[in-house]
Inverse folding.
């Protein structure tokens, strides 16, 4: 089975593979730039851009961490990342992943438009007002991430009524993805919520609203998986974890080593201050948190609104901004290392070009 190019709004993706947005600092200029260069859709994570280039763009620091959401998310850092990615990718489409749950979501979406991002992808909540923040930028394609046909229906109804706009594409994500899930703990294990069972209903719902492509995400690993998703009606896939196993991935070498060393049982669901279960690798941090001996929670960055300025962090036992940024900096003691359920299958580091070739042509 051959793979066709896919149109997302005004943009054409030569190979139907979106690289998942991974923050803090896992998918920035090098990974996103090279995925787009190779014909997929590279996605820059907007999370924690104050950490870019050793906090060069962070502004005010407290305890060597960016103070408040305006420094944790640095517009200057975001701009530098986009500019660097553009140098790699040329005029091929480039996307940004902007979590709906972050503090200051609308401002970051506006920044992405101003800074020349072509496609904006949003998950971690239902982005019912996403088009509001892209006014004046009709060419920017909008792609929500959903976990059910019902969620897509709500988005389409609201967008159509309020903005006379519909999504340019949709990502449907199952519970095998890395990081935050759109499901409860119980649902993550139930057959009816697995990716292979939620793709077709989302494709059917999308067809009622027009001709938007659907990308399947969460546990997609190889060419066979891509073909299976397409057989269910998807136009393409989104993949995150597998791209960590590339030279170009912006993750620290220690992050890649944690993934290379991970066994199947090491990848588990855990609580998160964002209010959704999150999937990651069991490490020293997870053992400390289980014993309530994790690092102090100070809420320096105020990164996500649902955390309620550190209240939820205290309830689950860790600050997500501090622990994800520790992973980005390669701290094995206190880093939080997200991974999809297939992360243990990463057994070598290869180039993005080689990985894209494997995905399109087979192993």
């Amino acid at each position: 089975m051959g793979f066709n190019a896919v149109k997302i709004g005004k943009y054409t993706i030569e190979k139907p593979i979106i690289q998942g947005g991974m923050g803090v600092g896992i998918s920035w200029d090098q990974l996103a730039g090279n995925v787009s260069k190779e014909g997929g859709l590279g996605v820059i994570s907007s999370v924690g851009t104050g950490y870019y280039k050793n906090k060069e763009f962070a502004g005010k620091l407290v305890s060597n961490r960016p103070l408040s959401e305006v420094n944790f998310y640095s517009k200057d850092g975001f701009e530098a990342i986009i500019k660097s990615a553009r140098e790699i990718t040329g005029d091929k489409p480039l996307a940004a992943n902007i979590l709906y749950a972050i503090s200051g979501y609308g401002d970051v979406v506006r920044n992405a438009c101003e800074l020349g991002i072509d496609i904006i992808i949003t998950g971690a909540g239902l982005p019912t007002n996403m088009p509001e923040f892209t006014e004046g930028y009709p060419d920017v394609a909008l792609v929500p991430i959903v976990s059910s046909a019902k969620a897509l229906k709500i988005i389409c109804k609201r967008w159509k009524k309020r903005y006379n706009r519909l999504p340019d594409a949709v990502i449907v994500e199952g519970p095998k993805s890395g990081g935050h899930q759109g499901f409860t703990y119980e649902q993550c294990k139930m057959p009816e919520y697995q990716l292979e069972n939620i793709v077709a209903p989302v494709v059917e719902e999308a067809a009622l609203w027009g001709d938007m492509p659907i990308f399947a995400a969460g546990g997609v690993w190889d060419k066979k998986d891509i073909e299976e998703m397409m057989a269910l009606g998807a136009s393409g896939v989104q993949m995150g974890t597998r791209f960590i196993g590339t030279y170009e991935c912006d993750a620290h070498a220690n992050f890649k080593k944690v993934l290379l060393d991970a066994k199947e049982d090491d990848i588990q669901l855990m609580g998160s201050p964002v209010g959704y279960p999150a999937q990651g690798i069991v490490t020293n941090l997870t053992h400390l948190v289980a014993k309530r001996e994790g690092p102090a929670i100070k809420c320096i960055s105020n990164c996500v609104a649902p955390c309620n300025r550190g209240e939820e962090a205290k309830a689950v036992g860790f600050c997500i901004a501090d622990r994800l940024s520790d992973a980005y900096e390669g701290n094995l003691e206190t880093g939080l290392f997200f991974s999809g359920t297939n992360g243990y299958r990463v057994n070598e580091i290869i180039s993005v070009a080689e990985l894209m070739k494997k995905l399109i042509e087979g192993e």
Q: What stands out?
A: The mean pLDDT is 92. The first helix runs from residue 29 to 37. The first strand starts at residue 6 and ends at 8. The radius of gyration is 19 Å.
